[in-house]
């Protein structure tokens, strides 16, 4: 049983790191930079990548796409999959300006997938309620005051069966300050008050750009990890204290790579074991 638990944990951690790498690429290119996967550094890139996410939104067995158009009153495009890599014509729904991330999850516990878009210019998250047939309706908008979100993660970190929200970004106070925030889900598509954490390393170049969730220490509770700009000396891990708070610690790039490779080995061993049975 212990080995099975380690394999599952390895798969989750590896997936979380791969998600972080993808988000770093997305947020970096939106800022005119290019991010190469761990452990290489940043370089200049000519194009931007608009946020997008994939899931089966209408339960027809085909993968559908949700992407941002960047700006405008209906800035969230839904393209239903038709199979063989083909998509139907885009249908547009409300979204904010300068979207930084799109998440797909059932945040109101009705059995249908919803869409959340994090909007930098509006300092908000737009929540679209899924109707189960690939269509959506505007549910609500979550605002963050002077905090500009750069990435989000949807996960149940309170163990109450309701999906919660983790955001990262920066505040517009002077000097510019990186911020991590958590909001407890109410189970109906709305969220509670924002609770903020200030990263231990602060400069104008270290605002967190990406956040991913996984159980990093094997205690059965969701933790999260943030990635920062090139000048950040390491990644920051927030371990769940099981009481709606998190303990912050910095992990070096080499330690992150080691954990990443170990997780990949666990997942690889799991696949070998499964195929041999």
Shape: globular
Q: Biggest sheet: strands side by side, in what order? A: 3-4-5-8
Mean pLDDT: 75
Count of DSSP-assigned helices: 2
Task: Sketch the topology as an H/E string, one letter per element.
Answer: HEEEEEEEEEEEEEEEEEEEEH
| Major sheet size, sense and barrel closure | 4 strands, antiparallel
Briefly note the structural class of the backbone: alpha+beta
Helix content: 10-25%
Strand content: 35-45%
Key words describing this protein structure:
single chain, 277 residues, 4-stranded antiparallel beta sheet, 2 helices, disordered N terminus
Topology:
Elements: H1 2-30, E1 33-35, E2 42-44, E3 52-55, E4 64-68, E5 76-79, E6 81-83, E7 86-87, E8 91-93, E9 99-105, E10 114-119, E11 124-130, E12 136-143, E13 147-155, E14 164-171, E15 177-183, E16 195-197, E17 210-214, E18 223-227, E19 234-240, E20 246-252, H2 253-276
Antiparallel strand pairs: 1-2, 3-4, 4-5, 5-8, 6-7, 9-10, 10-11, 11-12, 13-14, 14-15, 15-16, 17-18, 18-19, 19-20
Helix pairs in contact: 1-2
